[in-house]
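Below is a filled-in request sheet from our internal design queue. Each sheet records the structural input a requester submitted and the sequence that came back. We keep these sheets so that new team members can see what a complete request looks like end to end.

REQUESTER: design group, bay 2
PRIORITY: normal
MODE: inverse folding
CHAIN LENGTH: 128
BACKBONE (tokenized):
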């Protein structure tokens, strides 16, 4: 009965995963409809040192177009996962987020007696 004591364990290869996401949203698609476009790309380092996979083999990518409206809504998605796509788990994380918000009010309205929200546009931005 072999216990594995005294055997040298094979060193695990150094593995990395990196990715990027894109998310765009508008409330003015075709004039007055909501629309959303999302895309992603994720890459991992070569999990098999004996192979030479292509970028397409070691990545996953896709996009989605959504039409979230009443009374009709729907979405169209496309995703591809490479043959050697095997992302590493755990480890460090680096991120950056940027948001820009634009709102436009056509006419004034009262939120309480004597307190009105005036028409016009509002812009806000943030990043982290």
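RETURNED SEQUENCE:
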């Amino acid at each position: 009965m072999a216990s594995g004591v005294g055997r040298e364990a094979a060193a695990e290869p150094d593995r990395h995963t990196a990715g990027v996401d894109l998310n765009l949203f508008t409330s003015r698609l075709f004039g007055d409809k909501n629309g959303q476009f999302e895309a992603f790309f994720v890459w991992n380092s070569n999990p098999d040192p004996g192979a030479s996979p292509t970028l397409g083999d070691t990545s996953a990518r896709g996009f989605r177009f959504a039409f979230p409206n009443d009374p009709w809504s729907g979405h169209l998605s496309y995703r591809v996962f490479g043959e050697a796509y095997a992302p590493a788990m755990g480890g460090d994380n680096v991120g950056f987020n940027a948001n820009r918000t634009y709102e436009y009010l056509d006419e004034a309205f009262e939120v309480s007696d004597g307190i009105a929200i005036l028409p016009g546009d509002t812009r806000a931005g943030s990043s982290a």
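SHEET NOTES:
- The mean pLDDT is 84.
- The two ends are 56 Å apart (CA to CA).
FILED BY: M.R.
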